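Example 3.2
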Amino acid sequence: MTFNSFAFLGFFAAVMLLYFILPSKSRTILVFVSSLTFYALYNVKVTVFLCIYIILVYAFGILAERSKSKAIFALMIVAGLLPLLISKYVNFGLSIIDSVISRITASDAGHSINIIVPLGISYFTFKSIGYIADVYKGKISAERNFITFCAYISFFREMLAGPIDRSDNLLLQLKEKDTKSFYNLERGVLLLVWGYFEKMCVADRLGECVDTVYADLYAYSGVAVIVSIAFYSLQIYLDFAGCTHMAMGVAYAMGFKLPQNFSQPYLAVSVQNFWKRWHMSLMGWFKEYVYIPMGGNRKGTIRKYINMMVVFALSGLWHGAGLSFILWGCLNGLLQICGMIADPVKEKVYRLFNADTSSDAIKWFKRIGTFILMSCTWVFFRADSVKHALLIFKRAFTGLSLYSLTDGTLYSIGLNEKNMHLLAFFLLIILIYDILREKGIRPFEKILGSHWIFKCIVFLTVLFTVMIFGIYGTAFDASKFIYMQF
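Structure, written as tokens:
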């Protein structure tokens, strides 16, 4: 059951009805029960696993508060990570072993274990590890209220694609007195509908083009492949941002504020700046619990670069058990290091030509360059393998002709002319929205602070846009969120 399903809308409506009927002190219990119900609708067996895991982490939190033994802390971290490692990486390890054996013996060895991967395991595992580490370091006290703790770990709004919440945010909010607010409901529903627009009207349209080209690369070349590369960069952003806005909307309706996960990433002026804006909760987690404990930037430049490469290699591995994901992570780490090394040279060039680095022209030049670099790295993220990624790059430079931009070629890559024009219009809306936020203007706050008639017009306009132009049918049934697999 995904956020963009009719089943979820019914589920959400039922939860909100209970929320406003039941007394405020019942909010935490409602969160816990609704979260387990949501998970059980996905798979009852893994719900049992989730309950056992929560009990284990609950006990670990109390133990981490009482014992300051580094050995015990390390064992708890390993135990907390073990289900994630088994469910996502055992078959990857077996495939590597099989590859080595087949090269030595010239036989096709194939071993795999049928493992059901629990929904959102990467998210609730990292949330749990962060909680244990925070308790051990004395940043927070171990939570003794079992229901509150269960509600925190199992919070269903974060199960599909995060964000990865920290113990000093949602856990504290669950303890606060609930004050039901119609404003929260308004904001939550607006965020939810905006997320539907990003996902169903824009990301899924982009996905039609990407899937069409990537599925039959030998049928496409040049501009068509380059456009599909750029489209995937936009697709993964709007797919993930759409899911995040849906999660934030559902949470906001019940009075919870989730951490921001994106800050106009494609308006970044460098790769390093991009990663301060993209999947902020994950990168913040890696910084707090991996980069800083390894020494961060406190032990010299070379050590800082090594730490960065380790973090981004792990980030790639977190996203997927495959060499292409690890390479994607390492490329992003390497690009940042190269950018840091090149910064002094770039500054000298700007001074030589007396260029104003704060001008819009320079900023957009940097933004376009960053988008091109990121789009190239996303190829490894989307491709089935490293070999497939290299083929995509090869086809991009095969039969390259600018006439393909105007001769109708782009209307044959999954969307007809009408839908391609519609996509361009929707992307313009997204661009305007991101530029406004970059300038410090908050469109949603402006809308929510306006007259109720204007708010209704905006809400109904977005809602009917989703209903009329959203991707439905077979594509709708199959269009799960990209980040659900992680």
